[in-house]
Amino acid sequence: MSATINIQLFADYFGGAPVIQVPGRLFPIRVLYEPIRPEESTSGRRERLNVRPFLRVLQAIDHKYPPEERGDLLIFLSGVAEIGVVMEAVQSYAAFTKRWVVLPLHSTLSVAEQDKVFDITPPGVRKCIISTNIAETSVTIDGVRFVVDAGESPPPCPLLL
């Protein structure tokens, strides 16, 4: 099943309704891959999720871009538990630097809590939105300039009929 609409079928259903096409905006994308440092490896340890690479992203943004230059961060993780683990670490860094507002985004939050990701931060403060893949296709958040995909989304559930 595809989420893409069959335009002609839809227009015909409504008696040949006119179709207006608005092209989407494309933005340049630069993919950066940085392997996990050996000292940050969690292999052999009981740690579920290594938060250090996520902290390094915030630190790199703070180091490379002045606070006056806008641009929020969106991090994709596989689930609510992972969001909680990363949020705890990132919130400590945010409290220390006073340059970040850390916000979760997932389907079990109330609408009011989800809507916080659309709030505009004060000058010199960036948003770090830590989300499940809910924000990958269903939400557009203005101001997001940096995206981290942990590459660990859960496999889709089989369709049971």
Helix tally equals 5
Number of E-type strands: 4
Report the uncertain regions.
157-161
Rg, Å, rounded: 19 Å
Q: What is the oligomeric state here?
A: single chain
Helical content stands at 25-40%
Structural class: alpha/beta
**Percent of sequence in beta strands:** 5-15%
Q: Give the SSE string.
A: HHEHEHEHE
Strand order of the largest sheet: 2-3-1-4
Shape, principal axes of CA atoms: elongated
Q: Report the span from N to C terminus.
A: 14 Å
- What's the rounded overall pLDDT mean? 83
Tell me the major beta sheet.
Answer: 4 strands, parallel
Keywords: ATP-binding, Helicase, Hydrolase, Nucleotide-binding
Protein name: Probable ATP-dependent RNA helicase DHX34
Organism: Python bivittatus (Burmese python)
Pfam families: Helicase_C
Question: What would you say this structure looks like, in words?
Answer:
This protein is α/β, with parallel strands linked by helices and 161 residues long. The protein has 5 helices and 4 strands; from the N terminus they run H-H-E-H-E-H-E-H-E. The two termini are 14 Å apart.
